């Protein structure tokens, strides 16, 4: 009996220890969930052991004109297709915009329960070693407006109405500072990279020199030796890096350039241009290129350049379909296409793809085309820090086309004397930068009209245009990626662009002198934005405004292309980069 009693006491002691351990473990899990919630993420295991979609209201911003607000939501998405959850959310958000012609909408919440706010660390190592706190979530924490009741309600499928969110972002200025970021590539550094790429081209030397190669070499020599010319009165030297070179290069392009378009590839990914929405640039170019009779040849042996007529937007739309379950499937699809044409024709292998080009405007295009990046890529997402090669690749302008029949509708703006607004911005809180812009400048100064998303109805769109037409400077702040349609919109409405997007290579950088008609502000200088603009003398502003009007012709789509328009400028950039990168034995 004594042994039995001792054994029983020991057993009870072990049970108590086990219960204590279990209790501590449960307490730790509860504390961990609370800790995770406070940092903007809650991890809830799903039946498939994947991370479930969990929503967190992190902030809302009041719109001055409509007293409405947008609900900002952080989403942790199921990684069922191998794509980055943030990119998956971004794609769905942008697809909705492209289809609805809106910049931000209540439909966004129906299509996707929010949009990501990207946290940008000093470097990728720090990102891996520290808790990931989004900028928007950080502001939400500072405001201390998130109660446990609010967080619990968000675990379900229903989200509060957009109209019910009325917290003003402008009231949270205290103790908010922009993140320290990696040093941006300056314009002078971009120019140096451009010159270096010309001096030390990585283009593959052709296996044999052809008549087309000799024509390009001859053109390069003539362009390099170009003298000052006044033959083209519509061109003004102040907006070009070198007007003589541009004038001669454009002339040579018109005289000799021939392009072969591969017939291979099936719709809708190939040969089906989409000409409305935020990704319309690639569709307009495809439509006009395939219908062109001046440059296009049927005999590939006559061609200097070879066009791969695919749509990055349509390719991305195919993900999660029958044939594509993973981002790598899309990359492989393009690689297989190139292998198909390389096996059928000799031209890709002859130069390693250096005389081939593609035109792609989707955010993902720079990643989707990485397996075929030896060709010339005209990309909207021209991020010099993420794989865009200055001198080989060229920037495709983002043109938000709302009407195929009237792409130039509402062109122009007020004269400088009637532009009473110093700076204007309105748009959705895409990415990490725009919340910082609003944090510093929304409702701060009467001459700084800095808003969140404006209403999407006819009146809201009219007000957006009128603000651009009435402002001296239009803020072109990056969204999820470095590019934004506001750069071209500013030029349309004759408003001097203020580009805030580190490492963004502006369109036609090879020939245009962007510092002559635009202001490039580093992201870290957002707190000084107003002082920077006020420091510009009135005389200089008037010169820049006049130059915006001079350069405008290069950013216009015409259903029938005209000289120096956007179609010709895109083609010229591809031509120019090829001419200055060709190598022969």
From TrEMBL:
Membrane topology, as annotated, equals:
Single-pass type II membrane protein
Tell me which residues make up the Exostosin GT47 domain.
256-534
Superkingdom is Eukaryota
The UniProt family comment states: Belongs to the glycosyltransferase 47 family.
Q: What is its main location?
A: Golgi
The reply on keyword Ligase is: no
Q: Where are the stretches annotated Disordered?
A: 138-158
Q: Where is the composition biased (Low complexity)?
A: 140-156
Record's InterPro entries? Answer: Exostosin (IPR004263), Exostosin_GT47 (IPR040911)
Recite the UniProt keywords alphabetically: Glycosyltransferase, Golgi apparatus, Membrane, Signal-anchor, Transferase, Transmembrane, Transmembrane helix
Listed transmembrane segments: 18-39
State a GO cellular component annotated for this protein: Golgi membrane
Q: What is this protein called?
A: Exostosin GT47 domain-containing protein
Annotated GO molecular function terms are: glycosyltransferase activity
Q: Where in the cell is it found?
A: Golgi apparatus membrane
Q: Which organism is it from?
A: Gossypium raimondii (Peruvian cotton)
């Amino acid at each position: 009996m004594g042994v039995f009693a001792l054994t029983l006491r020991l057993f009870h002691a072990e049970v108590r220890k086990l219960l204590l351990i279990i209790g501590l473990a449960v307490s730790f899990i509860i504390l961990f969930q609370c800790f995770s919630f406070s940092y903007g993420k809650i991890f809830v295991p799903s039946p498939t052991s994947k991370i479930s979609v969990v929503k967190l209201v992190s902030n809302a911003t009041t719109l001055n004109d409509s007293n409405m607000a947008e609900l900002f939501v952080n989403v942790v998405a199921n990684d069922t297709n191998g794509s980055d959850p943030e990119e998956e959310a971004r794609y769905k958000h942008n697809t909705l915009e492209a289809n609805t012609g809106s910049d931000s909408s209540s439909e966004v919440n129906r299509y996707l329960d929010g949009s990501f706010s990207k946290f940008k660390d000093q470097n990728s190592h720090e990102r891996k070693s520290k808790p990931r706190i989004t900028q928007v979530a950080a502001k939400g924490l500072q405001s201390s407006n998130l109660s446990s009741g609010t967080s619990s309600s968000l675990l379900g499928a229903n989200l509060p109405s957009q109209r019910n969110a009325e917290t003003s972002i402008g009231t949270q200025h205290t103790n908010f500072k922009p993140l320290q970021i990696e040093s941006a590539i300056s314009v002078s550094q971009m120019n140096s990279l451009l010159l270096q790429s010309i001096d030390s081209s990585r283009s593959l030397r052709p296996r044999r020199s052809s008549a087309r190669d000799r024509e390009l070499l001859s053109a390069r020599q003539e362009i390099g030796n170009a003298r000052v010319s006044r033959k083209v009165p519509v061109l003004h030297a102040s907006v070009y890096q070198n007007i003589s070179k541009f004038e001669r290069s454009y002339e040579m392009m018109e005289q000799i350039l021939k392009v072969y378009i591969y017939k291979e590839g099936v719709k809708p990914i190939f040969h089906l241009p989409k000409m409305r929405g935020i990704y319309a640039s690639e569709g307009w170019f495809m439509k006009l290129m395939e219908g062109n009779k001046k440059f296009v040849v049927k005999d590939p042996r006559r061609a200097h350049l070879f066009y791969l007529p695919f749509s990055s937007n349509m390719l991305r739309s195919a993900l999660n379909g029958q044939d594509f379950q993973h981002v790598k499937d899309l990359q492989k699809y393009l690689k297989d296409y190139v292998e198909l044409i390389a096996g059928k024709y000799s031209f890709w292998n002859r130069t390693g793809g250096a005389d081939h080009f593609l035109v792609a405007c989707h955010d993902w295009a720079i990643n989707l085309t990485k397996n075929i990046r030896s060709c010339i890529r005209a990309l909207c997402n021209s991020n010099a820090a993420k794989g865009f090669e200055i001198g080989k690749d060229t920037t495709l302008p983002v043109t938000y086309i709302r009407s195929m029949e009237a792409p130039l509708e509402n062109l122009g703006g007020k004269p400088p004397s009637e532009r009473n607004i110093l700076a204007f911005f309105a748009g959705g809180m895409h990415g990490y930068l725009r919340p910082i812009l609003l944090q510093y400048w929304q409702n701060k100064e009467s001459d700084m009209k800095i808003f969140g998303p404006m209403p999407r109805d006819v009146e809201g769109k009219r007000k957006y245009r009128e603000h651009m037409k009435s402002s001296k400077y239009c803020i072109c702040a990056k969204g999820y990626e470095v590019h934004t349609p506001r750069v071209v919109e500013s030029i349309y409405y004759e408003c001097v662009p203020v580009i805030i997007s580190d490492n963004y290579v502006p369109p036609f950088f090879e020939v245009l002198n962007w510092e002559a008609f635009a202001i490039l502000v580093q992201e870290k200088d957002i707190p000084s934005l107003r002082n920077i603009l006020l420091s510009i003398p009135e005389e200089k502003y008037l010169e820049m405004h006049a130059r915006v009007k001079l350069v405008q012709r290069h950013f216009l789509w015409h259903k029938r292309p005209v000289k120096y328009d956007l179609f010709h400028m895109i083609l010229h950039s591809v031509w120019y980069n090829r001419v200055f990168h060709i190598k022969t034995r």
